[in-house]
Specification:
This protein has 460 residues and is α+β, with helices and mostly antiparallel strands. Helices cover 35% and strands 25% of the residues. An eight-stranded antiparallel β-sheet has the order 13-12-9-10-11-14-21-19, sandwiched between helices. A five-stranded parallel β-sheet has the order 3-2-1-4-5, with helices on both faces. It has a three-stranded antiparallel β-sheet with strand order 7-6-8, with helices on one face. The relative contact order is 0.11. The protein binds adenosine-5'-diphosphate (ADP).
């Protein structure tokens, strides 16, 4: 087992990884930018090293600086968390070339799955269904128009290097496809340094269903069930739950099997997530594979009683999976709410600032993964996610009730957050019935905001 792990990340996920290291009796080193000197991940770690100024490009994305710290502090492995360098194939290779373990899949696998259009082709070749779309990349706006005319509108223009919902455009009419193609390509170039684009048919009112998989070095691959991440804003997840209300045992088994097949086809090793959209006609389609730990991993941990970060570390250390597929058991229902410093009434604009006073819920079945504390300042340089509230209960309705009361206990003074919105979502009949799709939040946002306004008026 590793002696010392460098955590190349910040915020709640760095703290989450630190916790796993402690429980496994592995020393940990964290790195931080000058903006993060007072962050929990810098203060909690037995050893923390400043690696540069606030801009991520100068700190959390500075591969040389991170490798230098890892070498100087005697680390034998690096955990990249999510975001930042977690899906950077070059970094994964560089870590291994420096004689350390990268806690994630190989650079080759990251490269293969990181190119979303190439990943589609690979999945097709092993019989995992993909959304109808372009065969490979689409080079020009004119070509995009020709393909869209052929597959039929609406279509979705997507960036091969995309992530976080960026570089993506929905197209409903032939007249707009060329302009939207250029717009999406420009956005992708700005965000990811690549303007490689491809096309998919836009599946209307789908659910986002993803499967957690674990794969070791010895060819063992298991899946740990699904997460329903259909509550989204701007193609980004806000609330996740497991199990999904949309799946029957039969559909779950088929999708789980497809996820394992996808991981095998990729030659996958470590923890990963296979994402699907599920159409209203119950057809499911692969959209991408994420080659890292996901933000929403805690809901899977709650229902499987597993520690996914520990599993990641064990796999990277060369240990075989302890569980076979038939040993995986599921218990109860879990929901996660992402608490972001943002203003839902102004297009979810980020609202960084200082949290003057914070009180977190507790009690049975409630888990908090956060970087917030009294007086902590959310920096404008990074993601606006401040906390994840996770509720577990034996049934879905009890988990919803538990999450409502947890959010009622939660207090974050001084910061604008989406707590009220999350709370109202948990009362919306469409959500409560479990029949929501990725269109849910867009469709019902005005209603939800009016409920918040009414609640605030009656308190005033
Ligand atoms: P990213 O890597 O940017 O997160 P994804 O391919 O994972 O992009 O898609 C993000 C979200 O966009 C999905 O969760 C889903 O809501 C929506 N989406 C992606 N592909 C399609 C599609 N073909 N039809 C409908 N919705 C889609």
């Amino acid at each position: 087992m590793f002696k010392k792990i460098l955590i190349a990340n910040r915020g709640e996920i760095a703290v989450r990884i630190l916790r796993a290291c402690r429980e496994m009796n592995i020393d940990a080193v964290t790195v931080y930018s000058t903006a993060d000197a007072e962050s929990l991940h810098a203060m909690f770690a037995e050893q923390a090293v400043c690696i540069g100024p606030p801009r991520a490009a100068d700190s959390y994305l500075n591969q040389e600086a991170i490798l230098t710290v890892a070498r100087a502090t005697g680390c034998d492995a690096i955990h990249p968390g999510y975001g930042f360098l977690s899906e950077n194939a070059e970094f994964a290779d560089a870590v291994r070339a420096a004689g350390m373990a990268f806690i994630g899949p190989s650079g080759d696998v990251i490269r293969k799955m990181g190119h979303k259009s190439a990943a589609r082709a690979l999945m097709q070749s092993v019989g995992v269904p993909v959304v109808p779309g372009s065969d490979g990349l689409v080079r020009t706006a004119e070509e995009a128009k020709a393909i869209a005319d052929r597959i039929g509108y609406p279509v979705l223009i997507k960036a091969a290097a995309g992530g976080g919902g960026r570089g993506m455009r929905r197209v409903y009419e032939p007249e707009t496809v060329e302009d939207l193609f250029r717009e999406a390509a420009a956005e992708s170039l700005a965000c990811f340094g690549s303007d490689e684009m491809y096309l998919e048919k836009l599946i209307e009112n789908p659910r986002h269903i993803e499967f957690q998989i674990l794969a070791d070095r010895y060819g063992n691959v298991i899946q740990l069930g699904e997460r329903d991440c259909s509550v989204q804003r701007k193609n980004q997840k806000l609330l996740e739950e497991t199990p999904s209300h949309a799946l029957t045992p039969e559909l779950r088994a088929r999708m789980g099997e497809a996820a394992v097949r996808a991981a095998r086809a990729a030659g996958y090793e470590n923890a990963g997530t296979v994402e699907f959209v599920l159409a209203p006609d119950r057809q499911f389609y692969f959209i991408e594979m994420n080659t890292r730990i996901q933000v929403e991993h805690p809901v899977t941990e709650m229902v499987t009683d597993m520690d996914l970060v520990r599993e990641q570390i064990r796999i990277a250390a060369g240990l075989p999976l302890k569980l076979r597929q038939e040993d995986v058991t599921f218990r109860g229902h879990a929901i996660e709410c992402r608490i972001n410093a943002e203003d839902p009434s102004r297009g979810f604009a980020p609202c960084p600032g200082r949290a003057d006073f914070v009180y977190f819920p507790g009690g049975p079945g409630v888990r908090i993964d956060t970087c917030l504390y009294n007086g902590y300042e959310i920096s404008p340089y990074y993601d606006s996610m401040a906390a994840k509230i996770i509720a577990w209960a034996p049934s879905r309705l009890e988990a919803i009730r538990r999450m409502r009361r947890a959010l009622e206990e939660l207090t974050v003074d001084g910061l604008r957050t989406n707590v009220e919105l999350m709370h109202q979502i948990l009362y919306h009949p469409v959500f409560v019935r479990g029949n929501y799709t990725t269109a849910f939040l867009d469709e019902h946002l005005d209603t939800l905001l009016s409920w918040i306004a009414r609640a605030e008026e009656s308190e005033a």
